[in-house]
């Protein structure tokens, strides 16, 4: 129908257009629902499998290897340079304490090593025993040796055996800061060395324990000291 020059659709045309639009909306909705269902299925399926739903972040792997401990101590070898060992070490290597096995001082002397190097300090100590008490009993020689050692440890005299022996005006056998020659092949020297080792080890008790001074029994100095004992031809004081 034509009115005022404008054409209007009929009622049947309106219903036909409405049905077509409704059908198109239903199709779009169905497509949207199907798409949503597909996405949800994919998401739930991924979570069920344990796979990451986002971009994976690299993580440092933790090592399951157990820590190992060394149960055996490792000792580093020392240099085998022959000059590395001191005279003291060499002398100690051949010196042992047999006091527990000895019934007498003579037996203990016989147990001492007859060979081995002698360092300068041990030579000074044995030299003083050799020149001061050679020919006396072993107990007398030991008492002389202990005086040298006691002085070196007292803090009132030089702190070494040689320092004590060579201290000016102390021992008459020292002349011009020198010790006379020693017959090193003699039994007296071997005995003096053995007594010196026993005195250092304190493996036999001296009859003049703690003595710092002595003099020959034939003289009578006016010493105001405490007398400890007389052993052979010497009188000992502290």
Strands, helices and their partners?
Elements: E1 2-3, E2 6-7, H1 11-49, H2 87-93, H3 105-111, H4 120-133, H5 138-154, H6 161-165, H7 187-201, E3 213-216, E4 227-231, E5 234-237
Antiparallel strand pairs: 1-2, 3-5, 4-5
Helix pairs in contact: 4-5, 4-7, 5-7
Task: Give a summary of the structure in a few sentences.
The chain is mainly alpha-helical.
Structural class computed from helices and strand pairing: mainly alpha
Terminal CA distance: 155 Å
CATH fourth-tier homologous superfamily of the domain at 97-237: Cell wall hydrolase SleB, domain 1
**Order of neighbouring strands in the sheet with most strands:** 3-5-4
CATH topology of the domain at 97-237: Arc Repressor Mutant, subunit A
Count of helical regions: 7
What's the mean pLDDT score? 73
Give the low-pLDDT segments: 1-8, 39-96
Q: What is the class of the domain at 97-237 in the CATH system?
A: Mainly Alpha
Largest sheet properties: 3 strands, antiparallel
What is the name of the CATH architecture of the domain at 97-237? Orthogonal Bundle
Oligomer: single chain
**Inertia-based shape:** rod-shaped
Describe the structure.
Helices cover 44% and strands 7% of the residues. Strand 1 and strand 2 form a beta hairpin. The protein is rod-shaped and about 155 Å long. The strands form 2 sheets. It has a 3-stranded antiparallel beta sheet, covered by helices on one side. The protein has a two-stranded antiparallel sheet with strand order 1-2. The termini are far apart. The protein has a domain at 97-237: Arc Repressor Mutant, subunit A. The protein has 238 residues and is mostly helical.
